[in-house]
Amino acid sequence: MTVNRAKSAAFSAALEAGKFIRDRLGNIKQIDYKSAFNIVTDVDRASEKMILEILKSEFPDDSYLAEEGGGHEAKKTNRRWYVDPLDGTTNFTHSYPFFCVSIGMEEAGQMIVGVVYNPIADELFYAERGQGAFLNDEPIHVSSIGELSHSLLATGFPPDTGVGKPHNNMVPFTSLTNLSHGVRRDGSAALDLCFVACGRLEGFWELKLAPWDIAAGSLIVEEAGGKVSDLCNGPLDMPTGHILATNRLIHDEMVGEMKKLDLK
Ligand code: IPD
Ligand code: CA
Ligand code: CA
Questions:
Q1: Is there a contact between 148 and 253 (Cβ–Cβ < 8 Å)?
Q2: Cβ–ligand 1 contact at 187 (below 6 Å)
Q3: Which ligand is nearest to the CA of 208?
Q4: For the chain, what percentages of helix, strand and coil (3-state, to nearest 5) are there?
């Protein structure tokens, strides 16, 4: 079955690349800047090469969208892979141990398989549409906390937040900090989503993420019983990249806060 082949290719790629990244922690050979504060390292690029080689050897005719540019639009099948070879590059560059590999596979416009691997904690999160979500083979579920005031949340900011006018996410960041147990900014959107899925966080939101940041994690949240939407409670729109993911129970309260955002 294609899904089983896809799952096993995604597992191999995530595990191999994740172990490679972990072994290179503290041993970066080249750092480049995509813009003022947006870092890319030789490890991001090598990880992407490794992942794409594994996936393409199994699925040569599929389309690939990969952060560091190694993907291509094949259009020979209705499958597309989303690859973030190192989500949390800023953390990795500073040896802050919170980063992962994220791989998602979409078929006919629907996410079917999501795999996120944190090589430091050796945690492999995955989901297959309709089959639930798992962490190292154990089923996971979102938390049962029903009030925002008892919730732990996370958000993120793009690397160039400090350039230009203050980022408009500062408004909900401040208000939700005051309305909840707190808002973490941990620097890996894919892991933040997995933490919602396994009940370590009640909610996560961010603006303008890229498809490779959220493809795998959003399926993992949904399959764990959570809710994923855009910030106004509409369907998730990958090209816009505004995302709100919760344990479902606090979704409406969070949407209320998101309405205070200036989304222009
Ligand atoms: C970043 C991380 C971070 C998020 C940024 C992303 P990268 O991805 O997911 O948590 O806040 O918006 O760009 O660049 O480390 O792959
Ligand atoms: Ca990313
Ligand atoms: Ca990345």
A1: yes
A2: yes
A3: 1
A4: 35, 25, 40
Residue span of the structural domain in which 221 resides: 148-260
Task: List the CATH number of the domain containing 200.
Answer: 3.40.190.80
Is 211 a pocket residue for ligand 1 (Cβ < 6 Å)?
no
Summarize pLDDT for 158-205 with one digit per residue, the tens.
877 666 666 688 889 999 999 999 999 999 999 999 999 999 999 999
Nearest CA to ligand 1 atom 2: 188
Q: Which domain-ending residue is among 139, 173, 207?
A: 139
Tell me how far apart the alpha carbons of residues 117 and 58 are, in angstroms, rounded to a whole number. 20
Query: Identity (one letter) of the amino acid at 33?
Result: Y
Q: Whose CA is nearest to atom 6 of ligand 1?
A: 158
Q: Of 117, 139, 161, at which residue does a domain stop? A: 139
Q: Would you say the CB of residue 102 lies under 6 angstroms from ligand 1?
A: no
Question: For the chain, where are the alpha helices, taking DSSP H only?
Answer: 2-23, 42-58, 89-93, 170-179, 189-197, 211-223, 251-258
